[in-house]
Amino acid sequence: MTNQTDPTGDVRLTGIAKTYGAFTAVHPLDLTVPQGSFFALLGASGCGKTTTLRMIAGLEEPSSGTVSLGGQDVTALPPYKRPVNTVFQSYALFPHLDIFENVAFGLRRRGLRSVKKQVEEMLDLVQLGEQARKKPHQLSGGQQQRVAVARALINHPKVLLLDEPLGALDLKLRRQMQLELKRIQTEVGITFIHVTHDQEEAMTMADTVAVMNAGRVEQLGSPADLYENPRTTFVANFLGTSNFIEAEVDSKTGGEIVLKAGGGKLVLPEARCSAPAATGGKVLVGVRPEKISLTHADDAGEIPEGRNRITGKIADSSFIGVSTQYVVDSPVCSDFEVYAQNIDRDPRLVPGAEVVLHWNPAHTFGLDAAQDAD
Ligand code: ATP
């Protein structure tokens, strides 16, 4: 049953929800994952990402809502009848079978006899052609995970679901496998939906990331968009560090909002403000630490016009190699964190020094100050 308006391999969740007794693990959720994309469900432990993935796989029955794949409603179909396959953190390889037979398993179960060409192609894809006759215990963790991916891809699913597949690997291997999975996805061109709690992993691999919090998708977007334009403090904090300043809307002109903060003014592009921003209303102004420059107060006259600026006093500084990280106390925001990429470190920038923090208004984002109040 193909629907003419949705002829592709999109994954579409419509009002999908999951409750366990009185507890709601996933609130009604509408989400479309475009065909061929690398999509990440990102969030802290317990936010509902695995439950969402399992509902797509058919391993968990939704309490309400529908799942469709390529325009076909698959909500009532058992997992094995859905054109999806899942890779779990525990690779679940068959220990007594060699790598070739592990990958061939799905084909043999379907009664296919001449599997050699397909298995070899798949082992080449995951760069394990040389390891075909080894047993799983003779491979590294990363290699075993690649066997699990090959085994999941051999039946040509439309969608590959990956549930924290790199969770058991050490950091270095994890980083390598992130790039490797990205390469495999680009090569096979099918949709990958990847569950992770690691923001760097999601940002490295995915075209689109859904940030989940307490059973809801809090924001959806490209990694760059989520980082540059977070719409909630949760997203701003989950994807990196942010500084926040409480400000009041003074006026709006030509696509810009002018805000009062402490004794000074800050400018925020209207397009980067997710708060209602009526005159006199409160806005939480955010700026990423690495966007901020730090100038000694004696040199404040050298700061170009048009930059947002606030004054403060250095509370702490630590040299971390490529840059120096400063903590600055300011009347508008205490413990303002600044990562300044000062190559020629100004020797006057030491704890106690009076400084001006300044940045391009284009790097400012505005959040609803009331959102976390309830
Ligand atoms: P993690 O990264 O720790 O796996 P997650 O974001 O994937 O977390 P889920 O596994 O989807 O979270 O679980 C979401 C919530 O639903 C959690 O609070 C969990 O305790 C609860 N939950 C999951 N399965 C069940 C179940 N069978 N019965 C009751 N509660 C459950």
TrEMBL record:
From what superkingdom does this record's organism come? Bacteria
Q: ATP-binding as a keyword? A: yes
InterPro entries, per database record: AAA+_ATPase (IPR003593), ABC_SmlMolc_Importer (IPR050093), ABC_transporter-like_ATP-bd (IPR003439), ABC_transporter-like_CS (IPR017871), Mo/tungstate-bd_C_term_dom (IPR008995), P-loop_NTPase (IPR027417), PotA-like (IPR005893), PotA_ATP-bd (IPR017879)
Q: Name one GO molecular function term.
A: ATP binding
Q: Which reaction does it catalyse?
A: ATP + H2O + polyamine-[polyamine-binding protein]Side 1 = ADP + phosphate + polyamineSide 2 + [polyamine-binding protein]Side 1
Q: Where is the ABC transporter domain?
A: 11-239
Q: What is its EC number?
A: 7.6.2.11
Fetch the Pfam families from UniProt: ABC_tran, TOBE_2
**Membrane among keywords:** yes
| UniProt keyword annotations, A-Z | ATP-binding, Cell membrane, Membrane, Nucleotide-binding, Translocase, Transport
- Quaternary structure per UniProt? The complex is composed of two ATP-binding proteins (PotA), two transmembrane proteins (PotB and PotC) and a solute-binding protein (PotD).
Family per record: Belongs to the ABC transporter superfamily. Spermidine/putrescine importer (TC 3.A.1.11.1) family.
What the protein does comes down to:
Part of the ABC transporter complex PotABCD involved in spermidine/putrescine import. Responsible for energy coupling to the transport system.
Task: Write the protein's name.
Answer: Spermidine/putrescine import ATP-binding protein PotA
